[in-house]
Fold these 4 entries.
Entry 1:
Amino acid sequence: MLRGIAVALMMAVTVCSPLLIGDARAQSTEESLVCCAPGEVDLYLVGSDSSASLTPFSAELGDDVQRVVVESSVTGQETLGTWLMPDLWAGEVPGGTWQFAINYEISNAAGVQINATATVDIGSKSFTASTEPSGSFLAQGVGTLTFDIDVEAFTSSGNSNIELTLTAQAIAFQVPGSDASFELLWGTEDEDSALTATIPLLDIWMIEPEVEGDDVYLAVRLDSPWGLSTLSLSDSISLLVNGREVTGDPIETAADDTVRVTWTWDGAAGGVETINVQVELVFQPGQSALTGSGTYEIETFDTGGGTGTYYPPDEPLRTDGSGSRLDVSVRAELESGANNDLILKTTTSITMSDEVAFWFRWGLDHLGDDVTPLSPTLEAFSAGGVSDDERVSRSLESVEVAEFERQMVNLGQLFLTNGLGLDSDELLGEFRDFDQLQIKLDLMGESNVVNHPVTVVFFTTQSVEDGAKLTVLSNFIVVQPAPIWSSINLDVEYASSMLTGLTLSDVNNDDLALSVARTPWGDVVTVRGEGLSQDDKFTFSTIPTSALTFAPLPLAVLTLLGCAAAMLIGLRLSRNRRRTYLYLEMVLMPVVGAVFVFGFPPNFVGGAVVAVALVWWVTAIGSPRMAAPARVWPTVACPKCSTPNVVDSDERPFRLNCGGCARVIKIEG
């Protein structure tokens, strides 16, 4: 494998943003400072009390409004709030005017007369601004209280804090009601109170390209007081070569306050060529990008030796702040055990993509590495049967896969919780409750250390309590400041046998679709959801049981017998009555079938059978009677004239006159 550093002669490094330094030159043969001059930034107010702070990242604005409430007049100096941003980045701070704007709301008063002061302390320096000496009048309703603070130029050493303090010397309500109040508001997107300052933000270093075959690895290094947050919470970062954006996910690594971002560029023409590389970092939404660029001469080789993905010497980051995709598939089967207990066999597949997948593959290729610094999650895995030749080979050998599967039996909870940000108990259940546990790794057809999905499959068997509520899944994503997962997709299916049932299944999140189906061969409960985030809360629960009235096959038999018995009784009640309406009402049978098939509890199924039976019986009783058939009376011939005569009475003896000769005929038998 050909691995060479590009024949990289730095021709020129230029800066394109008006906020940046004018013209940078290489400080060494490997990297050059290309950005950034002090720039204007909004430092948002977040938190309250001891956690009150200033942050340049709008992503840290929360959902709950922070507030200070004043309900009575203030006649002496009172501190309304203090916010802190630690470790201002080293560099020149130009003189100018900083603006502090804080939102307010006045209720049940005509307004407020306020005399207040905003103070910015940076190290030993202090800058203040106050309302007019006569006071400032704020009208009822909502508005913004602003202070223009003049700041003198100075040099930041890199370890000074910015501390913002708001104090009031006097607050007087005008025409107040009984519950008048003056509230200062901050901490959300709607109440985005902020200090707008011009300060050094960060340094961007452009690193000399590396060449591997026909792959070119282009990297920048971000140095800032916010470390990884600079990458994870900034609006966006991109790299352009000769004016065209490099696609594909970059590889990120971090150490202390430094974050390295490396893109793989595969657009080289081959041989020696000159390229212009430009980095663009949008620090805050709506602001101009911070940019820097460099021109390099590189030489690529058509050897096919590269993998198409940069292989970092240090452990890559699990997230760049935007998060990765996670797919969770659960297939479970409930069946009766040998001792009449209930056994639940579950297959849980966790498929990770994007940055997390690359981090996992890189870590798997470093099992037992005692040279490279590793995070506690990866360091917990021992070398086992992995040799030095197989380790750090950029390819995942079968022995590495086997060692991971073997050690995960003991390290599974640590890996899921600390490595993937998943609560193992809420996702899989407690490991100590498993009767059997087996773990398999699926590399999804790709054995190289590249950005490609990978699946970890857990096969578990455990006993569950008959008739007790079983929580299947519940909020298994551990919330992270920089989200590990951007999109979570769930596909869960629980099935029972003919003689076991799943009842009262429930999920308490409208974003998850719950469906229940029942056949005589078993219950099937499915839950599906797409695009869930780490903040979504949900609980999926069901009740496993072996009770005969809940088991699908016995319940199906009982339902059919109940319907058959109801119909037989209806037929019995409708003797000598018209059955036309009764037969028409047999269309109610599919209603009972639907209640059964859609998995309603047995009491609903029984209720449906009873309701249909009552309808049938009422119809049978209320149907009109059938008309009696005309009776055929016997005839007798007159002994004298042979005329036939109808004997229309059962009375004996019975006398009638012959219709022919009028002779009286006597019938005795």
Entry 2:
Amino acid sequence: MRRREFLRVVGGTAITTTTAPRYLLAADQQLPSTIVSDGVLVEAASFDDFGGWKLDTQHYQQMGGCYLLAHGMGRPVANATTTTRLPAAGSWHVWVRTRDWCPGNWDSPGRFRVRVDGKTLKPDFGADRKEWHWQEGGRVDVSDPTKVGVELQDLTGFDGRCDAIFFARAEAPELPSNDLVALSNWKDRLRGRADQDVAERQFDLVVIGGGIAGCAAALAAKSRGLSVALIQDRPVFGGNASEEVRVHTLGIPGQGETLLRTIDTPHYPNGHADAIEAQQNREATLASSGVDLFPHHLAIGLERQDGLIASVEAREATSGRITRFKAPVFVDATGDGWLGHWAGAECRYGRESRDEFDEGWSSQGDLWSPTRPDGRVMGTSVLWNSRQTDRRVDFPEVPWAMPVAGQHAASAGEWHWEYSSPDLHQIDDAERMRDHLFRAIYGSFANAKKRPNNATRELAWVAFVAGRRESRRILGDYIYTMRDMTERRTFADAVVEEVRAIDAHYQRKQTGAKEDFLSEAIFRNTGGKYYVPFRCLYSKDIANLMMAGRCFSCSHIGLCGPRVMKTCGQMGIAVGYAAALCKQHTATPRIVGARHVGELRELIGYA
């Protein structure tokens, strides 16, 4: 008997069913009878015009929404606007789902107001509680319910955030917030999605994650005639190389230079505006490739059948609609190993002990490999820069940033503006980690502005999409380690090559520095070219799952050499061609690696 199981994940809670769900996650996840459902929900992601607000999709799994972020770098952004329809005229009570992202003995930096039909609601939102919650907005009287105008008015330019607005008849309705499963169900019901069928699409290959690795996988597979879906949670492709993060691509292209040069970047300073032109070139390449592109789609679950992944579900960010993507083979290029994690593949997070793989080399002891395994990983960066102008430019007081920034002064941030903490998880605490770096940036720039030579300097750009280096790693038939690089081991199934040094990051705070948001790197040269085998690019547990990028099968130190984007792009090319061989030979990736690796290496470009 074939075993079929659907899994949908919200806020770390996995709901499983044996029949394909529509939108409600499961029959036993119906809304509690006390939760109000006779109001009107307006999701911020569905606003008609975002104005100067940014749509942030990074933390959907942690807080249950795609929210609007007033990312003005200290200058209030233009209003976000929309219209909605209410069932009747009269009095309505308004509730806003938001959070105070930096509470303390100061004016909250994320304050904003809500206007309904031109009338400003009394409270400032984003100045209540630090967790995501529904903040009361008072009552409004609506005369024309057929077209009710709603606006978000930013007050500070410092990253106020709004997930949704709810119009209720009841003065004190019970609304779901902390229970993200109930919140998802409630949103789908109120927005009418619960009554819709989930659209289904069939492909030869589905790639989740549109960074350089995912783009390369999709292009390679398409070049071999496969139908390919490329699913990305942001509106643009490129991941850390995108114009939203602006890290230049490092590493060597190996045998994949012809393909990779169509999607990578020149070597500009990290955070540079040249990333915009590189983005345009990448988007043009993808648009003309024939790959089916699904930007702004967040993977939220999958279907398992007899130990295989049968389909992956993705929710479109602005509409909330779900599409089910079916394929015989899948590639996890999410960076965080989401598909492997959901499917039940064995994964790792953190540093191994120095003895497990004989990775004890380091002049800095435990900063390289600890004596015992722990949860430390390399950190997340938020890049930023400023520019000189021909006029005096003021910058607001930011007392809320100073507990993080201290006395540190800076006018730009390179890769070493990086945050990692043993008390925080790179995935589970992603919003908190990004916000910590916001405080470091704004406080350090405010300190720099006190110097006379910076009187005419202004912030030019601060990323709001964080660039992550390391999190979850999916285990394959081989775990790549430091010794594979330092001994430059050769493999019969080698599909990736690199020459860069092992490059492990750690926080300066670990060596006594005051700033916990700055990092250092420990380098070890390998002495030449080293190789990554194909056995590191497919799951040992899920027979039709491959991975490309930083979630490939490796140790913490094993990641520190081949983790950069051109090398990850080589991994993408390898799994894209492997998917074509899976179809040609009706084989799993493991069988391709065992019986057809010569064909795979020939496709990649090895003689």
Entry 3:
Amino acid sequence: MRILKILPGLFLSVFFIACMNSLQAKPFPDAECTECHGERGFSVPVGKHGSLGKKELFIDTHTFKDSVHGSSQCTDCHTDIEEVPHRKKGLSTVDCITCHEKLTEEDSIAAKKRNSLFGGPPPKRVVTYTNEYKVSAHGDQGIKNNAKCSTCHTAHYVFPSNDKRANTFRLKSPEVCGSCHEKALKEYRQSMHGSALKTPWKGDSATCSDCHSSHKVSDIKKLSAHRIITDGCGECHQNELDGYMASPHGQLAWHGGNEAPRCVDCHDSHNITHTKNDASPVNQKNIVKTCQKCHENANENFAQYHPHGTTRNFEKYPELWILGKGMGALVIAVLIFFYMHSVLWFWREKKERPVIYQHSDSRSYPIRVKPEKKHSGIYFQRFKWYWRINHWLLALSLMFLVLTGMVVMYPSTDWAMFLVPMLGGSTTLNTLHHWAGIIFLLAIFGHAAVVLFRIFRSKDFDWFGPDSLLPRMKDWEDMKGQFRWYFGQGKQPHFDRWTYWEKFDYWAVYWGAFVIGSSGILLWFYEDVGQYFPGWIFNLATIAHGLEAFLAVLTLFVVHFFNNHFRPAKFPLDTVMFTGVWDLEELKEERPEEYKRLKASGELEKRLVKGPSKQWNILSHILGFTLLGIGLILLVLVVDGFFTRGLF
């Protein structure tokens, strides 16, 4: 009975499959096709009575068999053939895309076989090319006479692009592309790139596909086209590309800055000539006029800017080389010293604060616990509210400067290209960076103004006393004592109000503010400055601005974070910059000399305050961990940028 129930369904399934098979194209052997198409000269008239000439239908079967599609049957592509001959309606256009989209390493054994036999690209790359073509300017088949796959690859003689028989062989691309882009071809033939193809013994030259790519061709006005062409130029002119991408021109243009010049804005596009040629826009005779296309007030001074300047070529850019190597040495020296300082400190403090293991009745093994800090419940005011607000403004503005600055310094990283549109594009990014810079400088120099005012108002201020941030001999002795302690040669020094590393942090901020601030102002007001100073001063400003910012990131978000938050005695967070207070026991441990001095003078009692509320303590931890997290994320991004592109 059960068999009788399923028989009707089985019968219907077989009937349905039979009907579907009857609707599919009939598999004709290639020999039936080549009886006509294999005859040289085989063609059909086009138009009424052949008024439009003839359409060539001959297929060279030997050449086809050598192509990457040589193992395919005619009906693999021409699936709409129902009978032979098919003179009345002809054949529909072959759908290359649908087939190529299915070529993956997993499901296409035939594709692998073709690749091994004929040397074509691997299946995954074919899929990539297909997807790139679909979203390219050529992929929009709604445009009349737009390029199809066969326009460039031909219909039947498809060979790997490194095969001279291929229509896509790079040296053939000018003529292939020029069949549609006639004006561009005419200009290209007259250019140094096009004329070089006639003298191959002088070296290789750029063709259409080298600059525009093969499948990612897009509207020349779009950002994607600029990036493709810029990378294409760099394939031959790597040093020039490095200099361009390290300059504000390349950095801002990469992110879509409409006012930032691109390669073609200075060098032209298809009719590029050598810089020594009087017709070149970047020839010394024409350079000022070329600069004036973007900078109306450009003069001889302004035009001395090095658009491709790098720190790697002493003969061509001596001033850039000297500054780059000098600041590079400073960066390396500072990082080596303070990273070593942090590692040794961690090792010694960890050794003197061993992990405690406690036995528990509920467990058969000891439980690992941290040594508890001593708490007195009495609080000492270290920073008043206005100093804390100043620190918050400084920290927030600096982090925002790093975010908006490093996406420009490392424009081609994935994270930079993701973040810039989120921040409103390059123009908005530039504005935000400037405002963050203003807040940063106001916080620093506003702090200096208040400190100086208080000092000069106090007639008995000791410029080299314990309350002064000026370096003194005790700092040198403390640093030597700290290193002796690191290596177990003595006890840790007793510090007073300010330690030597805090003074370094303090004055490093002013040094950084001077270098970053002055160079940033030069770059901000380049139009006015360029009237009176040689243009290469902007190259120097760019290098100084970037290297000092890089140093700031790798010291503040590593060394400063370690000194104040991550060393064992402080881990995971010191909230003093939010609460303004230390527990008295912490003061005794961290600043024993200050504690003794204040207690002896009777000042200690005046500095004791009520502790922070529970709510403010919780909020302080939330804010503190948030800022630390942001800083560490920025550090990771900058380190990634460094390993991706390096420094100038």
Entry 4:
Amino acid sequence: MVKFVLLIILTLFTAKETIAGQAVTVRVDSMAVAESSYFAEPPSVTVIPVDFEINETNVKGFITSLKDNFPVQLGAFRMKYNAEAFLTEVRKHIDRNAVMFTEDNLYKVRISRSPEPAEAESQDIVETDNLPAARVNENNSITNDTLIAAESYDDKPGAKPAATVQVMESATLNRGSAGELIIGNNNPWLKRITYFGKSLALINALIITIVICIVSMILLLIFILLNRTRMEKREKLHQYLMERYQELIINYLFGNATPDDFRPIASDTYRRQVLIDQMIDVSINLKGDEAKKLLGLYKHLGLDRDSIERARDHRWHKKIKGFRELAFMNIKDANDSIYKALNSSNEILRMEAQIALVRLGDDNAFDFLSHLERPFSLWEQISLHELIVQHNLPVPQFRQWLNSKNTTVVMFALRMIREFKQTEAEEAVHDTLMHPDPSVKQLAIQVAGDMNMRSTLETMKHMYKFQDYNVCLEIIRSMGKMPDLSMLGFLKLVLDKEDDVQLQIEATKAIENNGEEGVRALVKIMKSEYKNYNIIVRHVLDRRIF
């Protein structure tokens, strides 16, 4: 009876072979699987041969008939875990070559014919017996993810279905059509990578970036080590040559060495530069005949040509080195290049040119001030003053630059007049009080007060009314430095008429500096009926306040 029922069911399935795409619902352990017809014959085959031998397999109520030449597709799934669960269930009941593979972006489960031994070695069978059952839904049923996937294959003897050739490993299934890793898909370390079908271009880029970074770090480390070794060797050589050449120079100046002893040294560029540096270091402490003898050796070896060439170089750091060498060796052949550097936009180059011209200017060391067009910064002024003091250079009459068009040069001249107490420049300072630049005017008033130039008092008095606040404040302070009773009335007027507290305080201090006469005038002011500035007068007269 059972065989009769099975025969009827098989007949029904065979009758539907010519109808493509009809869906049928089967149950595998209470799991509903929507599946297409399992035997879609090729268009050329319409009749089953009489000697067709049916081979039947029952999968919990699902009957499959298979001849060796015909693969049977059991399901097609969009979700991989559904396909794996179905394949596991099929393998429990079918002693056939059940496989899972990807085709047309679907995961398909088929029962193929038993492969020959040669074919078995070439096929990659997906082993999923040990897959966890946890991927099945909680209700222990697979969702209707199966698609109609009835396919027909050529039943020619020996023909191998194309899908069987395309069977892939589970690792390939994980990646799908995502791409190839740059280090190869067969690497065992990559078997655990699951990228869910996305592109692996980012992983490839990261691998390439890491490799490039590692190679760059190694090359950089090698370069640093080699460069450090080279620098250490060069430093040791430099120290050795310095000691040797210094000893040779001293022996030439005070011993029996001759210029011919320096010829081997002067033939090498690096040693030649070390020799120049040592000559400059020695020349700092030499004067008289020894300095002339060393200069003769410098020119005899042609080292002056090297310095002149550097002074005329277009690179600013080379120019500076050339300027220093020429200045210390007192060689004036490149003064034209040094004068051009005075108005350079490079502040360091300007400063070095100024120092070099001061050293090279025997008669008028500060003549460069007449050619200076760029601003003469306060730092440059301080450096030049230190140079005068340290090297005991002759101090010129700075009043000659009070008429300069460069206001910074005028201010430098005023500061040097005050610094070196050049009182003979009083008339020139007096004329500078009317300079159009307020900062120059303020400094001139300050210098006049510091040097007690009383001839400027009347001029300050008359110009007070037309000046800005800072200049007015400096005028009152300078009057306090040069006490004069003739200015007492003017100072009282400032105290009475000005509203600015600082001006009133400075005026009160200037009145007090006139001695007893000034103190009496302040006491009289305190007793007057004007009380608004009495507190200022008390503040100034309080001896506890300094």
